[in-house]
Write a structure and sequence with these properties.
five-stranded mixed β-sheet, flat, single chain, 17 strands, alpha/beta, five-stranded parallel β-sheet
Length: about 775
């Protein structure tokens, strides 16, 4: 019998593509929904963490405020022995106690918000114990003040000791609360972290599931391939567009750089004529009115040059053409130099200039001294400009460095503060913006471009720091920034054994009406091993010396004080035969304005100008104490000004196409005693140099016919062809009005030996010539 069909079973029907896709899509939606739920949970935990962090931060801040206020409560019982004002110190005590109680109540409210009862009770008990301790401190301080008022000084001292002990217990109570708080904070954050970790693990697992399902969906293969092809085409198109944009940006940057160079040259060339001519004019015989007019014109030109420099610096920074250097320098000396440069301007306004240097600052470190000086000059100049009375202060301190830095790096904080009008909160947000001033009204008292703080902020950022501002309206301003600096090895300067033994244990009285100056001098002298007493006025100083059984070894007096100045105080001291052995050091903000014979007559051994450098003060004290009282040595007197006259006889070739600059430079050189020949282009300079003997050539870089670069290159080729080298080689100094990066390198590459930027002064021009003449003389001697 023949079979009419196959006996094989039909193949099992596979699920349709649509069914598989639908099932996979449903599963993916479920997993994605789970992932979103987990994400919400994670965000909730992060929100809880942020709320807890703010709560703990507020509590720690409150604890810190309590510790500070506790110190204010402790202070009157200690200060009564120095001030002697019982009523004043009692008022300070009660005011400090009231502030402490208010702060304690606020702190208790913050800690009572902790959700766990047992933990909350531990912290609250510690705070309540601190409150009881403060109450005991107030009672003990009252006892101290009462006994002092009764002139029972020994009993008052014992009571003061009890106050200090209570203060120590109070601090320990607050530290205990802090330790408990930190432990509880860590436990709370650990719990939140574990919860977040679990949710993160589930998120990771859900992501794996989604990835596995997605990879299993074959239908996406075709779509992915198409997307990749489209993406490749888009990428090629984008690369073409990016390359075109890059070429356009580079062309624009090059055009901007060239524009800056041209603008610098075009502006500085006439500025050289303005400043040079006014400088020459002031060197002639003028009446008072003419000299005042010439001086005003010169200062106005310098102010305009400062504005131009600010704009060029800002443009170079914006164009990415500004770089900072890393060379060894002394950070303290930079700060002292800035203070000295602006001290005359500040003293003319009646301002006190204060320099505060930390005790462990490095002597040598790597950095950009010129840019740091530029920033500090800007900040200090603003402080002097906007402050009408009081003081301006520049300080440098060493901050704790990171553990990775060890002894090879330091973190230095530079700060400039003043007692000026301050800056409002609204203005603080925009003072670092370009072309912005705090007072931008039409009636503002002080001018400027509004670029100084912007440039300073960017320079600080380029050096690795951040310029910051703290100011309160009517209470002054403080600008500060911290810079990491790599130290130069073996740069520490310590007191020698002889110097330490000379200063150690000596008793010194410091008299100054400025409390900040008193604090700085007290810390400096104490660090050198001296025992320091301070007085804020001449009468106070005389009272201290009259009550003291032992005469001080020396006294440091400020000249300018109200009621009784330093010179009057000196006369009172010298009139007292009991104080004959007291050595006197005078500090003056006006420099050495008294003849030596008057100093000797008054018995003043040393006279130092403020702001006094720490090293200068230390050396003066060591010299004074190592040698018995002597007349004021010549070393402390200002050096006499050099007599006018020619620096040396030399023939100078000046190549300059600008007629005014020709006259300015030629006149400066002739007044300095040089024989000058002037030519107006590079070809004429080549011809003159070949036909006459010159000691040095001043070569302008941009001239018609042949510019300075090509003229220099040709002269060097001629010298090489003739075998001229060494000392016989003609020195060439570049004169250029360009101010862009690379100008110096371009001059040196062309064969020039030195570089003077326009506008220049006679001193700068002569200094460059003398450097080349001296170098040539040394080569000939060798």
């Amino acid at each position: 019998m023949t079979a009419s069909g196959s006996d094989a079973a039909p193949p099992a029907r596979k699920p349709s593509w649509q069914l598989l896709y639908g099932a996979a899509a449903l599963l993916i939606l479920l997993v994605i929904g789970l992932d979103q739920f987990l994400g919400v949970k994670v965000n909730d935990r992060f929100g809880d963490s942020l709320a807890a962090d703010r709560s703990w931060a507020a509590r720690f801040e409150a604890l810190g405020e309590l510790r500070r206020l506790a110190g204010e409560v402790d202070t009157p019982a200690n200060d009564i022995f120095a001030s002697g004002q019982v009523d004043t110190e009692r008022q300070r005590l009660h005011a400090a106690h009231e502030r402490f109680k208010q702060s304690l109540a606020t702190t208790l409210q913050r800690f009572e918000g902790h959700p766990i009862d047992g933990e909350r009770e531990l912290m609250v008990q510690g705070l309540q114990s601190a409150g009881a301790t403060v109450q005991r401190m107030v009672e003990q301080s009252e006892t101290t003040l009462q006994r002092f008022a009764e002139q029972r000084l020994d009993a008052a001292s014992r009571a003061m000791v009890e106050v200090d002990r209570s203060y120590a217990r109070l601090q320990e109570d607050l530290r205990g609360v802090g330790r408990i708080s930190r432990t509880l904070q860590k436990a709370q954050f650990d719990a939140l972290g574990q919860s977040v970790g679990r949710y993160r693990w589930l998120e990771f697992a859900s992501a794996i599931v989604v990835t596995a399902i997605t990879l299993g969906m074959l239908v996406y293969g075709f779509l992915i391939r198409r997307r990749m092809e489209m993406a490749s085409a888009d990428k090629a198109r984008h690369l073409t567009e990016l390359q075109a944009a890059k070429d356009a940006a580079e062309a624009a940057s090059q055009a901007k750089s060239q524009f800056l160079a041209n603008m610098s040259h075009e502006i500085r060339t006439p500025m050289n004529g303005v400043l040079g001519m006014t400088e020459l004019l002031m060197g002639t015989t003028l009446n008072d009115q003419q000299r005042r007019f010439a001086d005003s014109a010169h200062r106005s030109g310098q102010a305009l040059l400062g504005v131009i420099n600010d704009i060029l610096d800002f443009s170079k920074i914006e164009a990415g053409k500004f770089e900072v250097e890393s060379l060894p320098f002394n950070p303290c000396e930079v700060a002292y130099d800035v203070a000295e440069l602006l001290a005359v301007q500040a003293h003319a306004k009646g301002l006190e200039v204060i320099c505060q240097m930390g005790p462990d600052l490095p002597v040598r470190a790597y950095g950009d001294a010129a840019r740091l000086r530029q920033v500090l000059m800007n900040l200090m100049g603003n402080a002097v400009k906007f402050t009408e009375r009081g003081h301006v202060m520049i300080s440098v301190v060493k901050l704790p460095a990171s553990s990775a830095a060890h002894n090879h790096a330091a973190l230095l904080e530079f700060a400039v503060s003043d007692s000026g009008p301050g800056i409002s909160t609204a203005d603080q947000a925009r003072v670092f913006d370009a072309f912005t001033q705090a007072d931008s009204s039409r009636t503002r008292r002080h001018g400027g471009t509004g670029l100084g703080l912007t440039i300073s902020s960017q320079l600080v950022a380029m050096m690795g720091g951040k310029l910051q501002l703290q100011s309160t309206r009517g209470e002054g301003s403080r600008f500060w920034f911290s810079l990491p600096m790599r130290l130069v090895p073996d740069n520490a300067t310590m007191l020698t054994d002889r110097e330490a033994s000379t200063l150690h244990g000596l008793q010194v009285l410091v008299v100054d009406d400025n409390s900040t100056n008193l604090d700085i001098l007290r810390h400096q002298l104490t660090a050198w091993g001296l025992r320091v007493d301070t007085a804020s006025s001449g009468e106070h100083a005389l009272e201290l010396m009259s009550k003291r059984p032992v005469v001080h070894d020396l006294a440091i007096l400020d000249v300018h004080m109200p009621d009784m100045d330093g010179l009057t105080l000196t006369q009172r001291i010298r009139a007292n035969r009991r104080l004959d052995g007291l050595k006197l050091v005078m500090l003056s903000s006006q420099g050495l304005d008294m003849p030596t014979i008057s100093l000797t007559r008054l018995g003043i051994e040393r006279w130092l100008s403020k702001p006094v450098r720490k090293q200068e003060l230390r050396r003066a004290l060591i010299d004074l104490l190592a040698h018995e009282a002597q007349p004021v040595p010549d070393a402390v007197l200002p050096p006499p000004l050099p007599a006018p006259g020619p620096v040396r006889s030399a023939r100078v070739l000046l190549a300059e196409d600008h007629l005014v600059n020709q006259e300015v430079a030629a006149q400066m050189l002739r007044l300095a005693g040089y024989d000058v020949q002037v030519v107006s282009d590079g070809q004429a300079a080549i011809d003159a140099a070949r036909s006459h003997a010159f000691d040095v050539v001043l070569m302008d870089c941009l001239m018609p016919v042949v510019d300075g670069f090509e003229a220099t290159a040709r002269l060097r080729e001629i010298e090489r062809a003739e075998g001229v080298s060494g000392s016989a080689r003609l020195p060439i100094v570049a004169l250029t009005a360009n101010a862009m990066k690379g100008d110096v390198e371009a001059c040196l590459a062309a064969g020039m030996d030195d570089y003077v930027a326009k506008p220049f002064t006679q001193e700068q021009l002569v200094a460059a010539i003398e450097r080349r003449l001296k170098a040539r003389a040394v080569q000939r001697a060798e």
